[in-house]
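CORE FACILITY INTAKE
Project code: CF-77B
Contact: R.S. (postdoc)
Sample description: multi-component assembly, three entities in total
Requested service: structural model of the whole complex
Turnaround: standard
Below are the sequence entries exactly as provided by the requester. Do not edit them.
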Amino acid sequence: MLHIKEYFTEGLIQMAILLSLCGVRVDVGLEAFMPPSWCELILGPTSALTHTQILNLRNRYSLHPKTVDLDQFFTARRLLGWVRSLDRIQVPQAELETWLVQQEAGPLSGRFPDQNSLMDRTPGQVERVQSEPTMEQGEVLDGLEDGEQRTDVDRSDESSDMLPENQPLGLDLELQWQDLMDILEPENTDVEMMTCSNRSPDSRRPATAPGDGSEAPPPCSSTRPGTEPLTGTFWQQDLFGTANQLEQEPVLLPLTPSDELDEDGSVINTGFTLGNSRLDSWTIPSNYTDLLDENPTKDTDEGMNGGDNLAAFSMNLLTRDISPFSSDSPSYDLKTPSVSQATRGNDLDQDFGQTTSSSFVLAEEDADGFPSHISDLLKDLNILEDIQLLAGELEEGFSPELEARSEEEEQLHCDGVHQGADRRGNWMEDQEQRSRLGDVQAEAEAEVETDSDSGLSLDFIHSPSSSSSIVSEGSADDSSSSCASAVGNVFSDKVDSSDEDDSAGSHLEVEVTIKQEEVEEDMGAVGGHGAPRFPANHEDSKLFPGFSWLEHIGHDHTYNNPPLSSLSSPAPGTMSPIQTESSVRAGRARPCRCSSSSLAPETKTWSRDKERARALRIPFSYQLIVNLPVEEFNHLLSSGQLSQQQLTLIRDIRRRGKNKIAAQNCRKRKLDVLLALEEDLKALRLQRSELLQEKRNSLRRLQDMKSRFGRLHQEIFSQLADDNGRPLDATEYTLRFGPDDTVTVASVRASQSSKKHRGVKKRRS
DNA sequence: CTCCTATGTCATGAC
DNA sequence: GAGTCATGACATAGG
């Protein structure tokens, strides 16, 4: 295996060096195998965090995806911007690594828990996953069998405990006592039943024990302890373990680039040149992660041996490593506008596109693993173009709208995380449908048009009084290039072209550009016309993929908070350009979704307020008014030079909006409580019926015992006689059982008097 | 027309 | 005291 790694690594290093010589920055994630000087040579001094580092960090800190701090979400955007411009800005390593670790933990375990587990398993992992559950089942079965055996042992013990009581009986009473024991037998059975029922939880314990016992997966399962299937934990652990192993075995190889690789390098450059027009399509790693992972899955099914095995393994590793970035990529472009981007314009896009695409190509190399395969693959430009086309299609299907839709579907279909596979399926279906339709932009425009009805700010933007809300054209134009290019990075060229068309067609959409991302204090750049098409809520949902899942962790019943989507997306026209950072933060801090059913009445009711607001020429959007933090809101009101009527109406709108959300939450909570109570009621009724049945059985057995004991009592006393030979009266005498298993006949009066004496003594004492 | 459901809105209390 | 949230009560629209 080691020599394969060496071979594999050598080819990658050579390729990376060649690419770096050609001016293409690459990140092959092989720093573990290279001396630091090589890293500097190939990747440059400001190279990004590599996937091995990420894996290391994740293993080292064992961060849990649930330990999400909202502040980190806020900083995450800025950090992500740094990540996106890694070749431009020096990122504090520790901070970035911490964020990346958390960022990776989220999407992996939180949002699509099954997705990665389905996609990224290496064959060995799959085998392990397939075998280990059986082991666990075996353990469970063993545990159950143990429990049963123990129960049997207990039963035998109980019966053996009972036997000595029978032995000392007198021979004359042997038959009678045997009958008595027969009478008492049901009681023993009850005892057994009770012991069984009491022991049943214990017998179940072995079934759960593997989850936390010694055979349980090691505490590496920091991803999602308790909720994640063990299999997922196993494969993750294995994957990271493999990565660590790779890291712990640095292989230093001589730098001997071959002619073959030279050719490959030229081919790659040619591929870049040819695919430059679609460079943005390479920036959808999540999609091509899905794409690439199909092969490993197939390979896994076919049984991996030899070189294919290695190929699938490395491909899994690489695609998995890329996935944290990939999942963020659609949102990335929106926050990409940084200072450097604002100044450099399209340069950065191409740089980034090249970098990403080179990474992608290298991932393909890794997948093949051997230089000969690399050359064969890379020489075939058709394959490259196919990959580009496919990535482009996937990219088109990966629009924020689909993201939002999938979010909605996610909320509709599930509250938990078990829907990962289905979600992935829906996602892929959506993407396929989108690629069949082929024009997501048209749909986005349709949606914009649909929602633009409810626009408030759009109207006021046109109004002369809303001068403060109008973005200066100069800034918009200045930012348009960078933002549009940034958007173009991730969203296909169609987006760009359509945006350009739109910008050429009308300036209105430029004016109503949502400037949520532009005001990012650290990024400093402003967006262009691309922004309205890809609102920030999608970015948020994309940036924090696990967030929708995480928001349910604390049983936060904020079901219908003012939707981020509505905060910006549904009606770009309604969105006032006046967007402060805290407003964005507020919307981000309270992730929310509005069900589609609630949107229509909302727009209707909003139309009422809209009319009033239009009459009073209020220059703010509804979402802005409602979702802005109070400080920002007050600041907005104070700086707006608004009349008293306007202030009152704005406050009313805010109050109504907040109360509307509160009412929705309240109703949802009430419904949940009602459903929970119904479940409890059902369970209690079942328990009651069981207890009643048990009581009836017990009473029946007690009556039977009483009758049999009475008959036995009569029979015994019929055979007993006093000193005079007269039969004893069963009402005057009773049987007394001594501690030494002796049985004596005592008078009832004497026993009553002794009891009285004992009672008197007790009272006196 | 009535009933039911969903939703928005208001009033009120708690924090 | 203001702001926010939760919730009951009422109004309204639509099926």
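Facility notes:
- Residues 601, 604, 630, 655, 658-659, 661-663, 665-667, 669-670 of chain A lie near DNA strand C (CB under 10 Å from a C1').
- Chain A has 32 helices and two strands.
Invoice: internal transfer
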